[in-house]
Amino acid sequence: MTVYKEIEISVSNDYVATKGLQPYFNREIRIAIGNNDQDDYKNVIKYIIDYILESKPVISENQNIGYYSWLLQFRIDNQNYYDLYEINRDGSNFNKGCDTAISAIRSQSEICAKQNLTPLFPNFNQMIVISDGVYEGKDIEGIRYDSPEHMSGWWLITDDYDDNISSLKTVHFYHVIFRRPDILKYLALPFGYRFQLENNSVEITKDEDE
Fold it and tell me: Residue 35 in contact with residue 21, Cβ under 8 Å?
């Protein structure tokens, strides 16, 4: 058992669960254990604990919560618990557990660690600027600029871009990652960095314009 901010986190054969959150919103939280280490699920639980203790939200059935760059959902499968579900990779449904979320955040963190950078995770509901060709799977140059809170800062450009800024589209982050899961791992690079994806090879550099 682990104690985090006076909340117990316990591990059984099937779940990682809390004890002590019920006074804050009438139920405990549990996560179905999948293919990851216990500590990965505990880290998700700690994130939720922080959210609840700091924001004191009113939680209801099927309510969504962002987990860094992924989306989770509270569901009642047992009257004593909110079970965590997650959006699947193409956005078509929610699945029990959070293995995809853990994998997504790990891959983003690993890319940043290789560059000796601290991840700056985009929010699931932030916006991204894209050119034609992004949804179609073309090679991408991505540049991240310091931006207002509702924007991720990312501009994703392909060879289809005709230098006409009016042809660019501002879309939700989640629309891009559902269509282009291959670039999700690069999108926690901080402001001032860019990546060039070409022929399945990637180069990451600091933006010379910064």
Answer: no
Rg (CA), the chain: 19
Q: 9 — phi, psi (to 5°)?
A: -120, 115
Burial call 102-120: b when 16+ CB within 10 Å, e when fewer = bbbbeebbebbeeeebebb
Q: What is the rounded distance in angstroms from the CA atom of residue 196 to the CA atom of residue 68?
A: 23
Structure tokens at 79: 């009257």
For the segment 80-119, what is each residue's pLDDT rounded down to a tens digit? Answer: 899 999 999 989 999 999 999 999 999 999 999 999 999 9
The three-class DSSP label of residue 1 is coil
Cα–Cα distance for residue pair 63/53, rounded to 1 Å = 17
Query: 99-114 and 38-55 are packed helices; what angle lies between their axes, rounded to 10 degrees?
Result: 100
Say what the pLDDT of residue 209 is.
62
Asked whether the beta carbons of 133 and 158 are under 8 A apart, the reply is yes
**Model confidence, pTM:** 0.90
Enter the tokens of residue 197.
């994806």
Measure the CA–CA gap between 88 and 195, rounded to whole angstroms: 25
* CA–CA distance, 17 with 81 (Å, rounded to integer): 9
Instruction: Spell out the alpha helix ranges (H) of 58-180.
Output: 99-114, 173-179
Distances (CA, A) of 31 to 10, 118, 143: 11, 27, 35
| Three-class DSSP category at 104 | helix
